[in-house]
Structure formats: structure tokens, C-alpha cells
Specification:
With about 80 residues, this protein is an alpha+beta fold. It has 2 helices and 2 strands; from the N terminus they run βαβα. The chain has helices at about 25-35, 60-80; strands at about 10-15, 40-50. A two-stranded parallel ribbon has the order 1-2. The termini are far apart. The relative contact order is 0.20.
């Protein structure tokens, strides 16, 4: 897996656990991509895919609040 060239500010985040992707791919491979590309990325440890939506059984309030704060801050910086 690689992250190709791109210009702009990115916020790439994912849950540590995802039924659609095995853990080595999600955590180790994604961290390697962040490191090699210089892109910022965040893996929310001890969370499951969908953790940021209150309607889902895997909702994690603390991680969701941190995630939405960072995403909204990016929107404010770049979209005004």
C-alpha cells in the first residue's frame, strides 16, 4: 500500500479494528504509509470501524469527539 503524491492538507483517520481489513493492514501498513509519505494520520486505538457515529453499537464518545474536533478544525482552516 502506498499513498501517492497529493497537495493539500489531509486528515486521515481510522479505527484500530475493522472487520473489512485485517489488523496488520490497518495499523502497521497504514502507519508505514503515513511515515513514508509525510502525511499526517491517526489510528484510533481500541476503537472499531464506525466509532464516531452515536447510532452505532461501537460508538466511542471520547474518540468520536476528538475525531470530529480535528475534522471540523481542518474544515475551518481550509474552507473558512
Amino acid at each position: 500500500m502506498t499513498l501517492g503524491p497529493a497537495r493539500g492538507e489531509f486528515y486521515i483517520a481510522c479505527a484500530e479494528h475493522d472487520d473489512l481489513a485485517p489488523p496488520p493492514m490497518v495499523v502497521e501498513e497504514l502507519r508505514g504509509c503515513f511515515d513514508r509519505s509525510g502525511a499526517a494520520g491517526e489510528i484510533y486505538l481500541d476503537t472499531h470501524h464506525g466509532f464516531d457515529f452515536p447510532q452505532r453499537r461501537v460508538y466511542d464518545k471520547e474518540a468520536a469527539e476528538r475525531h470530529w474536533e480535528r475534522l471540523v478544525a481542518l474544515y475551518r482552516r481550509r474552507l473558512g
